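WP5 quarterly update. Target: Band 7 domain-containing protein. Source organism: Perca flavescens. Length: 283 aa.
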Amino acid sequence: MEMDDQMESQKRRGISKDDLISERTGSLGCVGWILVILSGIFTFLLFPITIWFCLKIVQEYERAVIFRLGRITDRKAKGPGIFFVMPCTDSFVKVDLRTVSFDIPPQEILTKDSVTVSVDGVVYFRVSDPIASVANVCNADFSTRLLAQTTLRNVLGTKNLAELLSDREGIAHNMQSNLDEATDNWGIKVERVEIKDVKLPHQLQRAMAAEAEATREARAKVIAAEGEMNASRALKEASLVISESPSGLQLRYLQTLSTIAAEKNSTIIFPLPMDIISHFMKK
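Structure tokens (predicted):
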């Protein structure tokens, strides 16, 4: 906590992370240089044996942060390849630079509209500054995991259920920016955040299913009513056209007879023309 407070106060005063590490490194002092010289003499006298303790190797995806008498020797981490350390005064910490992924455990979250949901996710991050990841935080991996859980709760607490279900990409981007800003002093770069699953209570699932079914039924009824209305308008227009042309009515009558004759029916009903029926109705 004291280290984080110091970093925050230095940041307010305009001092960067590299300046703080450089200030923390400092000089070894007289006693420190005496010990380093004695260690060098000891290494030189027992050269065939101490060579195996002085040469270290780190892989391509690793970097080594060297401490000499408790102070960081250089503002840049060593590696990859072979590097030299003093046997008694130097120690080093290996830092893996590969991208690491971890699952955020399911979190019970109360949304903005007072709905309790269970949400989990996955975070991808890597170490961008090996020295800061060692000197500024005790355990960068564990700290990032805890911060991801609290950030998930904080971000989703400001969203309602509809936004949570429809805007997962925006929520993930918001989480990534918040995590990346918080872990910058730790030398951690958050590359990607994804929301994996959103689990709703069973009662809410049934209510949402019933609401969706009712919405679909209402939409189907509206579509059927619109179809009936359009069909009625078309029949009205057709009747107006036929009433203006008696010959058109005769052609329609003959077309109907040809359609009936094409079917294999034992009984055929011939409809009477409307002009004959109207003649008898007048009498």
